[in-house]
Design brief:
Blueprint lengths: L8 E2 L18 E2 L5 H19 L4 H10 L4 E5 L5 H6 L1 H4 L4 H13 L4 E8 L4 H22 L6 E5 L5 H9 L1 E9 L10 E7 L10 E7 L6 H18 L28
Helix pairs in contact: 5-7, 6-8
């Protein structure tokens, strides 16, 4: 009787689908458990996500990079004094510290005419996303604003900030519209996802229903060009209709290559 070799890890017939997604599918198995490689990959991704949450916001480097683009910036801080407070008190991350609010009041006194658009950058839950993607996105958005003839406020860099802090920044600085670029909650395959939130007529106390969101901006997700394309549509429509949020749908036409119908599924071709 010939002994057959024992196959420890069994291949998954869905293996080919892994080339189409970063989701954890077709991991195979070893007995009733995950293979060692899949388990180690999971632990590594989890560590990256945790590191992204606790990574300090390098606002000095971003400010220097913006200065090279002729984009002035202001350093602000939320009412959350440190990272632990920020994670435990989301409400404090939505408001500015009194010192930062006073700085914006002084700036408004020197610029009483206000601005058409304010840009805000906050570390959110992934400073890594801001470090990797904020600068190129800000450059594109500033170019769009110049093309539309909109006046642009200095870029506000907010430490320990959440999405709603942009409303207070824009209200104090006197901006008709505001876009905040913020690090999104890290996933196990996306520790560096950047979110863009747009609001027309911002003021303290607005809910998420008043905002439009463009998420997953990163090299493996939504490209800078596509995010800029969608944002420009929202800003133009908001300026025309004087609203944003649930009443403003993203109906931007998506450019396609070679005349391909965007409604078709390439997997079914």
């Amino acid at each position: 009787m010939t002994d057959k070799p024992v196959q420890v890890a069994q291949a998954n017939p869905w293996q080919e689908l892994r080339s189409l997604t970063s989701a954890r599918i077709a991991l195979g198995r070893a007995g009733t458990s995950l293979p060692t490689r899949a388990q180690l990959d999971f632990q590594f991704a989890h560590a990256l996500a945790r590191d992204a949450v606790h990574l300090p916001f390098d606002h000095a480097a971003l400010s220097a990079a913006l200065a090279q683009q002729q984009l002035p910036s202001l350093l602000l801080h939320s009412a959350a004094k440190d990272r632990d407070t920020y994670l435990q008190r989301p409400d404090l991350g939505r408001r500015l510290s009194e010192e930062s609010a006073e700085l914006l009041r002084q700036h408004r006194a020197a610029q009483p005419q206000g601005y058409d658009l304010a840009l805000v950058v906050a570390d959110g839950l992934s400073a890594l996303a801001v470090h990797r993607h904020a600068e190129p996105m800000l450059q594109r958005i500033s170019e769009l604003a110049q093309g539309e003839g909109w006046s642009l406020a200095p870029v506000s860099l907010v430490e320990q900030g959440r999405v709603a802090v942009a409303d207070e920044v824009a209200e104090l600085i006197g901006a008709k519209m505001v876009v905040i670029l913020i690090g999104e909650r890290p996933g196990l395959s996306s520790p560096d996802s950047l979110g863009l939130y747009f609001t027309y007529a911002p003021k303290v106390g607005l809910t998420d229903a008043a905002r439009n969101c463009i998420s997953n901006v990163r090299l493996e997700g939504l490209s800078y060009a596509m995010a800029s394309h969608r944002l420009l549509y929202l800003m133009r429509e908001a300026s025309r209709r004087q609203l944003s949020g649930v009443n403003l749908k993203d109906e931007a036409e998506v450019p396609v290559l070679n005349g391909q119908n965007p409604s078709t599924n390439f997997l079914l071709d």
